[in-house]
Amino acid sequence: MSIKHQIQKIVFQNVVDRMSDKHKKANNIPETRDIAKQTHRQDIAAKYIYGYQSGKIVMAVMNRVAKFSGITDIKQLKKEHTNAYIQDAIDRGLKKNTLVTERFGIRKFEKCLLNTGRMSKHDQSIAPDVNLPSGSRINPIGRYSEEETRTIIDDIKENYKEEISQGVQLQEVAGLRISELKGLKVRYIDIPNRQIIIVGNTAKGGRGRIVKINEKDIPFLKEVVKGKDPDDKVLKVSKRWVEKVVEKTCDKNELKGRGTHGMRGKFSNDRLRQYCREEGVKYDIKHLKDDDEETLTKKEVEVLEKVSNDLGHNRIGIVRKYYLQR
């Protein structure tokens, strides 16, 4: 069996939504990461992979490690291989977010090896211990303004494929992660019910959700799905290319780059303003994002929780610290 198929087999055995109910019950594996948190079984949940997209990331990383190291059997994999791989990635100047993803893939694969009996807890770990360079967090912090958003989307419309500009605009109107955008099929854009469905196998951590869409954005969604089949993907280019296009567009227009994640930030602020209006809460953005959480009223916490749920998070602290900032 080729190394590629060995990796695929090991990873797929650990993707929870591909497991039988009997296997999950026998091994006390929570159905979703949310259930794990609710039942205080995070320790069990951390051992497995929630969401097919996460599984694909792990496979892609390990295929790169194997190719770089020249190993032909997974039994040959050692820490020296993963350390050399990560150090080479650092030397090539890969960005911090990419390095973190590579390290995550290797560490998660080690758990897969342990779960499948391919590795004993007494064996030497294969997880790299090379220190990553200091720098920004996984995703750039903050949100684009209305003016910045229109500049970015209009520039992309003019200079790149329509699907890229539509994809970036979908992130703005629905708060999609770039991975969720990549996995989004036309069938999950539910125009009659004004909602977009993010299914568990495309969502981070397998945490699916439904995002309600405002009436003003329905004409745009109709353009997105026009002439496409239900099983067509909205975005056919790679995630990295979309990220590169946004980065280039920001540089060209002398804007502070916040990655594609900045569109989720824009969405979060728009939704916060909307929910404040609907719930009769004062939209005091400085207070809502910066003041101690203990100073927030019950109503203010509720509107922040609604924003957090729309984004696929379960803590308002993440929204306040990483999305609402400018």
Features:
mainly alpha; hpI Integrase, Chain A; 2 domains; 3-stranded antiparallel beta sheet
Question: Would you give an account of this structure?
Answer:
The protein is mostly helical and 326 residues long. The protein folds into two domains: 3-115, no CATH class; 146-323, hpI Integrase, Chain A (Orthogonal Bundle). It has 16 helices and three strands. The protein has a three-stranded antiparallel β-sheet. Helix 5 crosses helix 6 (79-91) and helix 15 crosses helix 16 (316-323).
Overall mean pLDDT stands at 90
CATH class division of the largest domain? Mainly Alpha
Main sheet overview: 3 strands, antiparallel
Helix-residue proportion: 40-55%
Q: If strands are numbered along the chain, what order do they take across the biggest sheet?
A: 1-2-3
Name the assembly state.
single chain
Computed CA radius of gyration, to the nearest angstrom: 21 Å
User: Which structural class is indicated by helix and strand composition?
Assistant: mainly alpha
Question: What spatial form do the alpha-carbon principal axes imply?
Answer: globular
Low-confidence stretches: none
User: According to CATH, what is the topology of the largest domain?
Assistant: hpI Integrase, Chain A
The helix/strand order is HHHHHHHHHHEEEHHHHHH
Blueprint of the fold:
Layout: H1 3-12, H2 21-26, H3 33-38, H4 42-45, H5 52-69, H6 79-91, H7 96-115, H8 146-159, H9 162-174, H10 178-183, E1 189-190, E2 195-198, E3 209-212, H11 218-225, H12 239-252, H13 261-279, H14 285-290, H15 298-311, H16 316-323
Helix pairs in contact: 1-5, 5-6, 5-7, 6-7, 8-9, 9-13, 13-15, 15-16
